[in-house]
Specification:
By secondary structure, this protein is mainly α. The protein has 4 helices and no strands.
């Protein structure tokens, strides 16, 4: 996906990786997106992040929640 490449997203670890490790990988990529964001831009949708990162909805939402708390 060209947009995923533009945002610098890469699929996260394997399905056998612990959920916490996957969440940390997703969180790291979300932090990168936020750091590169211009004012007024939005994060991709959860569904888009799931597809681009190869992570479950639960993992993506947990990472987003942690990002909100920071």
């Amino acid at each position: 996906d060209p947009r995923a490449t533009e945002l610098g997203l890469t699929p996260v670890g394997t399905r056998s990786a612990p959920e916490t490790a996957l969440r940390e990988q997703v969180l790291a990529q979300l932090r990168t997106i936020v750091a590169k964001a211009v004012d007024g831009s939005r994060l991709p949708t959860v569904r888009k992040l799931m597809a681009d990162l190869g992570a479950s909805q639960y993992v993506v939402q947990a990472a987003l929640e942690q990002l909100r708390e920071e």
